[in-house]
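Lay summary. Proteins are chains of building blocks that fold into shapes, and those shapes determine what they do. In this project we predict the shape from the chain. Here is one chain we studied, written as its sequence of building blocks.
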Amino acid sequence: MFEEVLAVFKKTPGKSYNYKQVSSALNITEEIQRQQINALLSELVQKELIEESERGKYRAKGTVRRVVTGKVDLTTSGAAYVISDELENDVYLAAKFAKGLLQGDTVKVVLFPDRRSGKHEGEVIEVIKRARNEFVGTIQLSQRFAFLVPAGHKNGVDIYIPLDKLSGAKDGQKAIARITEWPKNAVNPIGEIIDVLGNAGENNTEMNAILSEYGLPYEFPKEVEKMADYIPTEISAGEIAKRRDFRNVTTFTIDPVDAKDFDDALSIQKVKNGNWEIGIHIADVSHYVKEKSVIDVEAFSRATSVYLVDRVVPMLPEILSNNVCSLRPHEDKLCFSAVFEINEEAQVEAQWFGRTIIHSDKRYSYEEAQDVLEGKEDIFQNELLTLNKLAKKLRAERMRKGSIAFEKSEVKFHLDEVGNPTGVYFKHMKDSNQLIEDFMLLANRRVAAFIGDRKGTAESASDKRETENRKLTSELPFVYRIHNKPDEGKLADLGGFIEKFGYKLNLKGDKATVDSLNKLLKDVEGKSEANVISLLTIRTMAKAIYSTKNIGHYGLGFSYYTHFTSPIRRYPDVMVHRLLQHYLEGGKPADAEELELACKHSSDMEKLAADAERSSIKYKQVQFLQNRVGEQFEGMISGVTEWGIFVELNENHCEGMVRIRDIKDDTYYFDEENYCLVGRRHKRTLRLGDPLRIEIKGANLIKKQLDFALVEQLQKKSPEQKQENKPKDKSPVKNKKRDKGANFSEEWGFEV
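And here is the predicted shape, written in a compact code that computers can read:
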């Protein structure tokens, strides 16, 4: 018996067992024998053959258990991973160890080695913090009790709802439940319904359900709305006297046609020496939203506006976002501005930052501004053409210095009056979009360099005279938008993959790498492999985040970069405005630790908002195609996983999966190195980027999934035959932490 018990511990070094678990491992069920095992364990401790790791639990003698802390990421199989900053690779939790865990929980995990793969495996020894206790889902009602079945495959376990806690929710409706109790050893937590969203399938219900699924608010607290109503809309003479007055300078806004929150405007005038004074005027949200106020606390909590398919969920109440702060035409508005004197070669010769008042002369949509740039006569035609000429020179210089030229396009839905999708269209970047982007980039990087570049080497070396602002000399904690270099392993993988198409990457140094990536993207334009290579290139990139620890922005090629230009929809921009004004007034350095926590919160909320946006797009894709089951479409393989292939349809860019078990002509396996499925007998290859014809097999609105069946593999088209497709931002580049082979559609954060 000694040897059998010791063998249990030797089999899994590092893992702890109590006497019941040892008995179970030895198939001992009788209580008297289990008590003998308990006594035997104490004897083994005395003989120093095992040790007591914690009260009543034992492990092999001399085992050094490593304990790490991280966040839970559940999988569809019931297993989980724990993502820890203390480890390079994630920790795998078998399904039996993941019971009772919820997505995002912070846990303490003890590691034990996995002999098969050498990867980290472990067991949770403590749930430090629950990620959330409110969940959205569907009510399942019986005569004696009810359950709320949470939306999303990562929301774990059904919540038991007593009938007297239903708050009027009916069977099949969408609702939000709060967990009130989770008894020890109980499979299901107990909860209560706190909000009934409505009937499943109704657009408003489903969009609010998506927001709730990601823990995002869909309405403002009453006290926040009430406080917003008290904000004065009149601008006093005293306030105007404190500001630089641009009301007599030509000024206009350029925004999407359906925008209501205009948070940036451009002014332009020629100065005596022949240069151009360009003002980049940003809504002065920080003037109206005072730090630590009720509105500010709510804005910080949200951290960002959320853009779903059919709506914007604003960071600020509507009276602020669409009225008081919005730079509407023909109204005096308070701004925080970055003003540059620029010569004909788009070189900055002087700069000024501070609070201003403006009066926008005209509101353009991107389409209206584009018409002017293409020759349509307009009152501000000369100003727009001048700005466009300067923007192109700024862009050329940015590309020369290391920005990566990813082409951007957006897939949008036409919606009817109740929110049902009736069609798909694509928005592409034109000169009017890029004009705005280039001047916003200029303001963002110059503000960041003004605070961060104490030696004046990053942005001011070409300036012919000193900035009008007071020179700042001490190290000042600030909010930066940072973007790390791509992982060398991912770049090497990309290089190996593109060699199959006859391309090469030069990875000898940062500048050579960027130049090589830009050449690659230019060379593949119009070619059959353009989509797949663009997708893979994007996925080699890191995710941009907010931080006080500046490392520069790799993708844009800037040593200093921040977000200054969108305070109506992004809280970090509000923080930047406050910090900049504070430092301009000679204020002391801000609390770096507190600022870093705010940066992390903003980055986390940005990701949640992006996830919710993608979820709303997936829902509309399924809704758009649910009545077309049985129809055939052409598409391309946009993702390859161990479970099957994702296919993006050429006609509408909707995406679904052909499951590996449904491909009947062979038994396929996942070739991770080459991003393909390979048939074991016939060696047929289904590779990332391959054209296919598929049939829509199913459309599941609840799971937001489209299921496809493979009809045939098509021949690749020549550049002359190929219609240009604008791909979405996704591709399966291996994740060094963990490649679960999912649908790779995460944005990489290059937005202005």
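What the prediction tells us: Residues 460-467, 718-752 have pLDDT under 50 and may be disordered.
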